[in-house]
Design goal:
Subcellular location: Mitochondrion inner membrane
Distance between the termini: 48 Å
CATH architecture of the largest domain: 3-Layer(aba) Sandwich
Protein name: AAA+ ATPase domain-containing protein
Bound molecules: adenosine-5'-triphosphate
CATH class of the largest domain: Alpha Beta
CATH topology of the largest domain: Rossmann fold
Number of helices: 16
Main location: mitochondrion
Family: Belongs to the AAA ATPase family. BCS1 subfamily.
Helix content: 25-40%
Largest sheet: 7 strands, mixed
Structural class: alpha/beta
Catalytic activity: ATP + H2O = ADP + phosphate + H(+)
Shape: globular
Radius of gyration: 29 Å
Strand order of the largest sheet: 9-8-11-12-13-10-14
């Protein structure tokens, strides 16, 4: 649609432009209620300006001095659902035919290369998030669906020990290097890399995974083992249909209740045997071996009926023959101790990263990040400068007011100058420091601190002043193990 001839074509189709949550919107298109105080989104789509695209049929345009014809054809085809094992249904199939004058297909090849380039430059600063298709739609060839296309999460927004970040970045950078596959192949090592991110909830495990996908420009494939319709066969086929390079995020592997059918059964058998023995001693040998067999049968049935992914099913998927090589697997857990050793043995997990409750230093960084101006540009490759281990770190990695940098970023300065915040320009590092002094070391998660600050989004001074009360209330809440917070 960037072709002037196409935009001015006399045959256009108007589409309601539905936007994703991340797309910029024109404020003037949003109505207000009668008081003028609150935004009102009723009939938002009807009010939005339509988007014009070439109508079905024949169009023509010029590109780089060459005349092209574009034919848009749409037809309904019947998909009998045989490949998906589902029900048949009519589906729209669209064909775009591009032709040009002359005998050589070269101009068309160039045009396609150009469109591809345009598409990628528009999507460069975004991360595509994919999840498994719903159970009934899974197909042999593609089981993944795009669920989000969001702006890249910049690495600097994940507050972690600098060294920790660098370690993962360097490891992943080396693994993704084009020469790595040959190196692995020459040594007969399967081309896989696995990380275990462990730590309490809300400490940044998922955030770091997204930021890593952003740094390396990879799509992220998220699987929750808690998904009720996910079978072991699905899991294997999901792993076998991954793209060449990608991040796979297996969340909360501990809560999945990975069952271990054989072990469980044996343990149950042992327990029941013992119980029987005790009873039989008491009842002077009335129990027969057929009783035990009967019980084992019932237990076996129960185990088989249990839904979910077994440990061997998961191991099969992540390193079985069908498992795609080249991917980076990130597993996250709140309770690493509960994991089976087999799951985290070297080769399956190559690097463990521990996430902890926030230190004072991290609380300070979170404070500064919260009140930074939001004119931040998406991270670009030319913003990155190499560090000795070969990994790129953005210049904004240095945190204002922290040990490794003391200057405010231009965005922060401009936000402060524009009077959006309730403090003066040079006060932020000092207030951030004084705020962090009030936060007990290693007791609150970054998510908790972020939540508190978010409620005082434009008021760093208030956030600092009310921190004592909030800290005391949160400590009380944690001690009493109550979910109800007194100060928010
Ligand atoms: N280290 C951190 N730096 C910056 N933001 C963080 C950090 N930890 C948590 N947050 C914020 O807290 C929220 C939850 O974080 P995230 O989902 O990454 O935590 P998690 O460790 O994966 O939690 P869970 O174990 O519950 O999945 C996010 O909004 C994130 O921005």
């Amino acid at each position: 649609m960037s072709q002037p001839r196409m935009v001015n074509s006399r045959y256009l189709m108007a589409e309601t432009a539905s936007k994703t949550a991340w797309e910029d919107e024109d404020e003037s298109m949003v109505a207000r209620d009668r008081s003028g105080l609150y935004l009102n989104f009723s009939n938002q789509e009807a009010r939005a300006r339509p988007q014009f695209i070439p109508a079905l049929g024949l169009h023509s345009f010029w590109w780089k001095g060459q005349y092209f014809k574009l034919n848009r054809k749409k037809e309904s085809v019947f998909d009998d659902g045989a490949s998906s094992g589902g029900f048949g249904a009519f589906k729209d199939k669209e064909d775009l035919t591009i032709s040009c004058l002359g005998r050589s297909p070269e101009p068309i090849k160039q045009l396609l290369a150009h469109t591809k380039e345009q598409y990628y430059s528009a999507h460069q600063a975004r991360t595509i998030v994919k999840r498994p298709l719903p159970g009934y739609m899974r197909r042999a060839r593609n089981n993944w669906q795009i669920v989000a296309n969001r702006p890249v999460r910049e690495m600097k927004t994940v507050v972690l020990e600098h060294q920790q970040k660098l370690q993962v970045l360097a490891d992943m950078n080396e693994y993704l290097h084009p020469e790595t596959p040959r190196w692995y192949a020459n040594r007969g090592i399967p081309l896989r890399r696995g990380y275990l991110f462990h730590g309490p909830p809300g400490t940044g495990k998922t955030s770091l995974s997204f930021a890593l996908a952003g740094v390396f420009g990879l799509d992220i494939h998220v699987i929750s083992l808690l998904e009720p319709t996910l079978t072991e066969e699905d899991l294997s086929s999901l792993f076998s249909t991954l793209p060449r390079r990608c991040v796979v995020l297996l969340e909360d592997i501990d809560t999945a209740g990975l069952r271990r059918p054989v072990d469980e059964l044996r343990a149950a058998e042992r327990a029941s045997k013992k119980e029987k023995e005790n009873t039989s001693k008491e009842e002077s040998g009335k129990t027969t071996s057929s009783d035990i067999k009967e019980l084992a049968k019932v237990l076996k049935k129960e185990t088989e009926d249990k839904k979910g992914i077994s440990l061997s099913g998961l191991l099969n998927a992540i390193d079985g023959v069908a498992s795609h090589e080249g991917r980076v697997l990130i597993m996250t857990t709140n309770v690493p101790e509960s994991l089976d050793e087999a799951l985290i043995r070297p080769g399956r997990v190559d690097l463990q990263v521990e996430f902890t409750y926030a230190t004072k230093e991290q609380a300070k960084e979170l404070f500064i990040r919260m009140y930074e101006g939001d004119q931040g540009r998406p991270q670009r490759l030319d913003d990155a400068k190499p560090v000795p281990n070969g990994t790129a770190v953005t210049s904004s990695e240095k945190v204002p007011g922290s040990a490794n940098g003391s200057v405010l970023s231009p965005e922060t300065s401009s936000a402060l100058r524009s009077g959006e915040l309730d403090i003066a320009i040079d006060e932020l590092p000092e207030i951030a420091h004084r705020f962090s002094e009030k936060i007990p070391d290693g007791e609150f998660s970054p998510a908790e601190i972020q939540g508190y600050l978010l409620k005082r989004k434009k008021h760093p001074r208030r956030a600092f002043e009310e921190a004592d009360k909030w800290v005391a209330a949160l400590i009380r809440q944690k001690m009493n193990r109550t979910k109800v917070s007194q100060v928010q």
